[in-house]
Amino acid sequence: MQSDPVHEPGSPEGMSAHEVNSRSELAKWISGTHVFPADRDALLKQAQSEGAPEVVLALLRSVPDRSYDNLQDVADELGLTSEGPHD
Question: Which H or E run contains 74?
């Protein structure tokens, strides 16, 4: 039996282990009820003030400059969910 190449054990349906790890890393630096809603600049400022690594800052720089309601909203925009990126 062949396993689904997109779904890896221990990760949600439709998400690779890399996507799960990226989302977890992002959450570590921008999560918290005091952060949202926030635009790209506010998310970057929060991540920088927390000492986020460059990979996280680069992810945040890549999102469109709009208001994000929560971490899920940012993850959706980055394609770090089973639904993929927004159009």
Answer: helix 71-78
Separation between Cα atoms, residue 43 and residue 6, nearest integer Å: 29
* Domains in the chain: boundaries: 17-27+36-78
| Bridge partners of residue 68, in order along the sequence | 38
> Taking Cα atoms as reference points, which of 54, 32, 52, 35 lies closest to residue 43?
35
Q: How far is CA 21 from CA 10, 16, 34, in A?
A: 11, 9, 23
Helix axes 17-30, 40-49, angle to 10 degrees: 80
pTM of the entire structure? Answer: 0.72
pLDDT tens per residue across span 4-40: 444 444 445 666 777 778 788 889 999 876 889 999 9
Write down how long the chain is: 87
